[in-house]
Amino acid sequence: MESISRDCDAAISTWLALIRPERPREFLAMDLAEWIRSNLSNTSYFPINGFEWDLLFGSLLWCLWTRWNKRIFETDAIFWESILSCGHRLCVEAKQTALLHISSDPFVHCANRELVSCKPHPTCLCKINTDGAHNQSSGLSTCGGVIHDSHGNWVTGFTKALG
């Protein structure tokens, strides 16, 4: 994750366009977990413009992750949109979706809203979660996943070395 989020050229150029000029060394050198926590909790420390930084930061990480995976698994992929444009677009889409969701039900006020959790499906369905990783220095890639039944119980897991 670190090589995708901060070490590749696309990531570095994206972050340098957004980070205060006096802080790029600190931004790029932090421990990964602390880096993520810091950017999500202190939204004005690193960015030039901290407005909705947490949303943009997360969106940019998603864009970097998906671009990295497309380069690995879709070797002929063509990227028409920059990482920065992709991140801004995702922020706009997220805000529009949130506004649409709130305004679509004018009779429900925030005080009446309740948290909703995932409930088991009444039929016999499974949920599959998958992920993959690539080590740039060794060139090795792996993938894996887990399968849960409709009640959230673990059924099986799998891993595969891709070479």
What does this entry show, briefly?
The protein is of the alpha+beta class. The chain has helices at 2-7, 9-18, 24-29, 32-41, 53-73, 83-103; strands at residues 127-134, 141-148, 154-161.
Give structural notes.
This protein has 163 residues and is an alpha+beta fold. The chain has two domains: 2-112, no CATH class; 127-161, no CATH class. Helices cover 45% and strands 15% of the residues. It has helices spanning 2-7, 9-18, 24-29, 32-41, 53-73, 83-103; strands at 127-134, 141-148, 154-161. A three-stranded antiparallel β-sheet has the order 1-2-3, with no helix packed on it. A hairpin with a 5-residue loop joins strand 2 (141-148) and strand 3. Helix 5 (53-73) crosses helix 6 (83-103). The longest helix is centred in the middle third of the chain and has 21 residues, at 53-73. The two termini are 18 Å apart. Residues 106-113 have low confidence and may be disordered.
Q: Radius of gyration over alpha carbons?
A: 19 Å
Q: What is the overall number of helices?
A: 6
Largest sheet, described in full? 3 strands, antiparallel
Helix content: 40-55%
Instruction: Please give the order of strands in the largest beta sheet.
Output: 1-2-3
Separation, N- and C-terminal Cα atoms? 18 Å
Structural class: alpha+beta
Number of strands: 3
Average pLDDT across residues? 78
Order of helices and strands: HHHHHHEEE
**Whole-number count of domains:** 2
| Low-pLDDT sequence parts | 106-113
Bulk shape? globular
Strand content of the residues, in percent? Answer: 5-15%
